[in-house]
Amino acid sequence: MTEADLHHFIGRFKLGVLSTIAEAVTPQSALVGIAITPNLEIVFDTVKSSRKYPNLIARPQCCFVIGWAGEQTVQFEGEATDLQGAELKRCQEVYFKAWPDGPGRLAWPGIVYFVVKPSWIRYSDFDQNPPLIQEFVFDGSKRDHNLAGI
Questions:
Q1: What's the Cα-to-Cα distance from 121 to each of 18, 35, 70, 101, 124, rounded to whole Å?
Q2: Is 123 within 8 Å of 6 (Cβ atoms)?
Q3: Euclidean distance between CA atoms 98 and 35, whole angstroms
Q4: pLDDT of residue 142
Q5: CA distances (Å), 67 to each of 71, 106, 120, in order?
Q6: How confident is the model at residue 150 (pLDDT cuts 50, 70, 90)?
Q7: DSSP annotation string for the chain
Q8: How far, in Å, CA of 132 to CA of 82, rounded?
Q9: CA dist 14 to 32, 55, 58, 66, 89, Å?
Q10: Cα separation of 52 and 62, whole Å?
Q11: CB of 17 within 8 A of CB of 24?
Q12: What is the rounded distance in angstroms from the CA atom of residue 124 to the CA atom of residue 130?
């Protein structure tokens, strides 16, 4: 599996489960609408009154689970950034392609957009025998791919 294959897989899904850490150091999860950039960044919107917003501002490390058709899934870990300026516009273009109704939410009070840059991604496919499990590690400009077997 290549990064292009991973992008294609994630792009098939419009929803992902986002997990964040609350102030009380307890986990919180939410189903969110997502879009994926060519650089494997996840973009999503939320409102400032949500639980995830203050969690991500205080502790930007987060994770996603994406895809649950059959036994193919992606686990995605990264760091979230509250988008502003040119980066906001770039990511909104990607998000609005996936979510054509997204511009209508711009009028919502407290609407914000986040991008999550990956630090680690695991693709698992247990629908094949033997199963395929592949990890992608992102360390700034360095990308390391390894195949992990069961």
A1: 14, 16, 19, 28, 10
A2: yes
A3: 6
A4: 46
A5: 8, 27, 16
A6: very low
A7: --HHHHHHHHHT-SEEEEEEE-TTS-EEEEEEE-EE-TTS-EEEEEETTSSHHHHHHH--EEEEEE--STTEEEEEEEEEEE--HHHHHHHHHHHHHH-TTGGGGGGSTTEEEEEEEEEEEEEEETTSSS-EEEEEEEETTEEEEEEE--
A8: 34
A9: 8, 22, 26, 9, 20
A10: 10
A11: no
A12: 11
Give pLDDT tens digits for 55-84: 999 999 999 999 977 899 999 999 999 999
- Neighbouring CB atoms inside 10 A of 102's CB total 18
What's the mean pLDDT in 15-31? 96
Say which amino acid occupies 129. N
